[in-house]
Amino acid sequence: MTKASRFTENALSDWMKGEGPDSDIVISSRIRIARNMQAYPFPMLATNQQSKEVLEQVAQVVHSEELGTISRFSMLPLSEVNELERRVLVEKHLISPALANESRNGAVILNDNESVSIMVNEEDHLRIQCLCPGFQIKEAWDLASQIDDIFETHLNYAFDEKRGYMTSCPTNVGTGIRSSVMIHLPALVLTQQINRILSAITQVGLAVRGLYGEGSEALGNLFQISNQITLGQSEEEIIDNLYSVVRQIIEHERAARQKLIYETRAKILDRVSRSYGVLSYAAIMDSKEAAQRLSDVRLGIDLGFIKNVSPHVLNELLVMTQPGFLQQTAGEKLTPEERDIRRAQLIREKIAETG
């Protein structure tokens, strides 16, 4: 068993098992803070020795008493994490694809329930990520701020009085904060309101991305909504803006779900029932179809049409059906067709367990 195994053997992080506010629509809330150290070039320009020194200084903070008061943390050097485990960590949103492809003194620091992930020597020296279930963006910020304060007492951050925190990417300069929510919007998609809503979101300084961030597709009606502006606003203003916009989106989604029930109840019941049937019996299934069928069943659960399946099972299946996790559980590399067969098998087994 490798050092990373305890973080990659289970698809569902412990923090995801909790119930958060508005969890029928908001899957999770995330805060990510980018920080760099004054005396060192950004990771992309640093020498091997410089990035090694950054890693060593960060490791000292990980073992400090102050950080231990928040949680117990483990540091995983990427050089000790194999390719498949890296892919699973990406699928669980614990590291970025960029860090997964970087082995030169890159590392990730995780707490026991995986609600905190700190990437070292990715695009920035530090990227502190805190995750909470449901709509708890302010709670995620409180935790991230505490951790950031501890690191700042030990490390000399690159900071400018006018520009704020210095970051590798200019779009993060200022507060260095990205606040985001993962939100499930099937009713807005089905009622064909989603494009209007997403257009309005971008006009108020927010970005909309897919399941795995920038450049990824919004599979399974899951969208990431985050701030774009990091300079000229305080952290609290950025979070308050996201909070108020997401609150309105939640209300629109709830209204759209009620519209579906009152105007097309039989069609929606048929749709979610068919998807439940396909997930229960299909022998082969690609990732795109799996995401859509799981979205339908999740909507059926939230509308009260399906009562014997837990939403947690669907959250778990979103990770379990990804290529990396499928191959890890199989213990070998799989062809695309073999993955599709194994994906259908895992889904059938999970549905049967709860049925």
Describe the protein's architecture and organization.
This protein has helices at residues 5-8, 48-62, 65-68, 83-91, 97-100, 137-154, 186-190, 194-202, 235-281, 287-302, 311-320, 323-330, 336-354; strands spanning 26-35, 73-77, 107-111, 116-120, 126-133, 159-160, 164-165, 177-184, 206-209, 222-227. With 355 residues, it is an alpha+beta fold. A hairpin with a 5-residue loop joins strand 4 (116-120) and strand 5. The strands form 2 sheets. Strands 2-3-4-5-1-8-10-9 form an 8-stranded antiparallel sheet, with helices on one face. It is globular, with a radius of gyration of 21 Å. Helices cover 47% and strands 15% of the residues.
Task: Tag the structure with descriptive keywords.
355 residues, alpha+beta, eight-stranded antiparallel sheet, 13 helices, 47% helix
Q: Give the % helix.
A: 40-55%
Strand content: 15-25%
Distance between the first and last residues' Cα: 33 Å
Mean pLDDT: 90
Largest beta-sheet characterization: 8 strands, antiparallel
Structural class category: alpha+beta
Low-confidence stretches: none
- Series of secondary-structure elements, N-terminal to C-terminal: HEHHEHHEEEHEEEHHEEHHHHH
Spatial strand arrangement across the major sheet: 2-3-4-5-1-8-10-9
The global form is globular
What is the alpha-carbon Rg in Å?
21 Å
How many H/I helical runs? 13
Number of strands: 10
